[in-house]
Amino acid sequence: MFQYFPTNYVWSLSTMIALTHGGNVGEVDAMCAPILEAARAGDDPGTLAFYEAWKGGGDRLITLAEADLQRGHRLSAGEKFGRAALYYGIAERMQAHGFEARLQMYQRSLELFALARQHGRENCERVEIPYDLGPQDIASDVAPPRGSAELGAARRSAGVHLSGLLVRAEGLAPGQRAPLVVVMNGLDSTKEMLAKSVMGTMFARRGLSALFIDQPGTGEALRLQGLPAVHDTEVWASKVVDWLVQRPDVDPLRIGALGVSLGGYYCPRAVAFEPRFACGAVWGANHDWRAVQQARLNREGENPVPHYWKHVQWVFGARDLDDFFAKAEHMHLNGVVERIRVPFLVTHGERDRQIPLKYAHQTYEQLVNCPKKDLFIFDASTGGVEHSSLDNPNNAGNQIADWLAEQLGGTVA
């Protein structure tokens, strides 16, 4: 992986996310060069400097985009708003839970992403999926601080929902139903981030629609709805499928699932317990996430974000570290993937520094009831050797998309 900050994997990971999700290398370099020295102090110190540098890069793009609009250049403005949304999202992602400006920054990134879709005429529609639960199921204490309690209360009174981004298959005739892939976030990704990855176009070109979803514990579900992550993925995945099968543009018999990073746990669990999924795939296996947490406690492996233990407690609505580890105890796939009875693909980077390769083999070996199972290990010859192939998502992503297209009746020609 290109490591902009030679001594800091976590900061370099965010930089690579920007570069592989629509960022501009010149802009990224301009934001990162002044904070090279700050990165040497470690993952957590200096994240305020990171925030200010990346917010500044977004601010400059907003000024340029607004000038484009004054000239009537909406397409140009849309591109700039899109990159500003990305840079704001990266800046927010790197802060600890409790950072004063975090919620405001996140909301502004959503606004900028919406402006990018509007002015850029993108094939990307925001959708909301009903997710009504009892009050006991909504952890108000996990919502961000500084004014978010009122926001969460307003959202809950209006009905809880999961937000998503729907990218439609290309070339559909009026009234035609398309196969669809539900794309599940990892621990710290969002629907906007993944929609701007190679997945934002590679499914549509193969005749597959895609739904990028902020499931509980991620994106809007966590920040605006107060919904923490849960181990029993099927609770929310089944509600997503309920909504999809009622849509006239979705083929209810050809709905697949793809999980990225921690989605490598969520997706197999969803496919195991929700029989309406026609197939599943993981971009990075996560067979035993509870064991990974114990290893991280012993400083084994890399973290995905700074202030890691604060972050996971927020994501899971945990009172403290002990409560988090009690919740994480459920996060494994032993006795789960044996239930999967549809085609399933396991992929992993050979040199993944966050999740050991052995977990890909464990998931694959336990898929004993699959009519078709495949294992792709991305190595130096293919690229994509790092976590979820962030070092080279193009080759790995296209291989995954081809596999899903073959299962769901899309096209690879």
TrEMBL record:
UniProt cross-references to Pfam families, sorted A to Z: Peptidase_S9
Gene Ontology molecular function: serine-type peptidase activity
Annotated coiled-coil segments of the chain: none
One GO term (biological process): proteolysis
Membrane-spanning ranges: none
InterPro entries linked to this entry: AB_hydrolase_fold (IPR029058), FrsA_esterase (IPR050261), Peptidase_S9_cat (IPR001375)
Domain Peptidase S9 prolyl oligopeptidase catalytic: 239-410
Domain of life: Bacteria
Protein's recorded name: Prolyl oligopeptidase family protein
Source lineage: Bacteria, Pseudomonadati, Pseudomonadota, Betaproteobacteria, Burkholderiales
